[in-house]
Amino acid sequence: MDIVKVFGKNLKKYRLALGLSQEKFAEKCGLHRTYISTVERFQRNISIENVQRIADALGIEAYQLFIDDQQNQ
């Protein structure tokens, strides 16, 4: 399992489910749009603090961002 890809895919899935653009979501969690973009494109490792900020902005528990849906199918 590539944890960076799992996280990026889950972030995008949850963000889109809320109907938020990268820019609006970035504002909501206090990060820059390009930061969110690089996470969703698997180009950035992020800190635990930012994982929590992202989870809070999505309204989910942080661990949910690390669940690989592909393994559960």
Q: Which helices and strands occur, and which strands form pairs?
A:
Blueprint (H helix, E strand, L loop, with lengths): L2 H15 L4 H8 L3 H8 L7 H11 L15
Helix pairs in contact: 2-3
Overview of this protein structure:
The protein is an all-alpha fold. Helices cover 58% and strands 0% of the residues. Helix 2 packs across helix 3. The model has no long low-confidence stretch (mean pLDDT 94).
Quick description:
The chain has 73 residues and is an all-alpha fold. It is 58% helix and 0% strand. Helix 2 (22-29) packs across helix 3 (33-40).
Secondary structure: helix percent: 55-70%
| Whole-number mean pLDDT | 94
Number of helices: 4
Topology order in helix (H) and strand (E) letters? HHHH
Q: How many distinct beta strands?
A: 0
Which descriptor suits the 3D outline? Answer: globular
Please identify the structural class as seen in this structure: mainly alpha
Quaternary structure: single chain
Largest sheet: none
- From the alpha-carbon coordinates, what is the Rg to the nearest angstrom? 11 Å
DSSP strand content? under 5%
Distance between the termini: 14 Å
Q: Which consecutive residue ranges, at least 5 long each, have pLDDT under 50?
A: none
